[in-house]
Write the structure tokens for this entry.
Amino acid sequence: LLRVWSAGCASGEELYSVAMVLHELLGRPGEWTLELLGTDIDQEALERARQGIYRAWSFRRTPQDLVARYFTEEGSLWRLRDDIRTMARFARHNLVLDPVPQEDGVPLQFDLVLCRNVLMYMPRSVREDVAARLGESLAPGGRLMVAAVELDGSLFGGLVAERLGGATVYRRPQAGASARRPRSAVPGRKLFDTSSRSSFVGGGVPRRQAGPGAGAPQAIAERTATPREAAAPARSVETAAALAARARAEADRGRPEARSIAERAVSLDPLCAEAHHVLGLLAMERGDLEGAAAHFRRALYVEPGLAPAHLAMAAVAERQGRRSAAARHRAKAVELLSRLAADAEVPGEPGVPAGWLLEMARGGGSGDGAAAEREP
């Protein structure tokens, strides 16, 4: 049995990419039973996920050989093969308010949890609880994948950081150690319908049985796209804005060249707010909070209305213990996002709808979020 949870799955692109990789990796039916769960607070996005119909750019970061095998073109849309679509299940779940997904009142344990580009928008206290809950959801030996800019050893103290497929992931130790538990959670509800498990026929096999599935986390890390990463412009377009977009895409993938690309953008245009934003995020990843704050201040000097930079400044201030500054920047971000339509794309965050980011900035909440598609 292999369980995967895409937490904050939007309209399902990431989880379906995982399904395609596993279908390739595990070979013929009969050897494994899969449970692939995608959750989000946005009901409309979940319904789109269940339909499995997308625009072409939704899987632009998925290897094209997989797209060719698993999608059928229908005019301007692409339809996912039914055998892949039925491998995944989707349910509404609030990462802030809900406990770990359960089955018959027992929390599920996952071999792989993906929660990328979600934690970075939350207040520190909320991130701590959500991070603990994500760690709690892992089976012994299970892995958690977050975005490169979300790597923070102080959040995932019960987990072990390791390199996998060119990315840093967190692993829950085997017996004898466990992730920290969240301080609070509302009573759970059953999210997984075990009657609809995706079987590579065969029925039960021992959990973490040796075999092809043992390589699943690395294969997924190598072949799936980072959610909502910006489309990287052609390398021949050497404008500061194009380089900044490339740098953000590489940063989201955890690639070391992201920094040099962003620095090249700044050398072309010292007032490129997007490049300073990326450099600030990379500085945060390195633990250079002063450097991060300097870049975010430059970004906000050029574009005072850049809500993601205000949220990033809030995160830096929280780590530095400057609570009033953190509250001020978070309040400004909430004000800016409130002016946008819920389904409007947030400037500086390609594919991220304002309504969703607003809810994250407020600490998660219990609303349904934005209706717009959050691209992978």
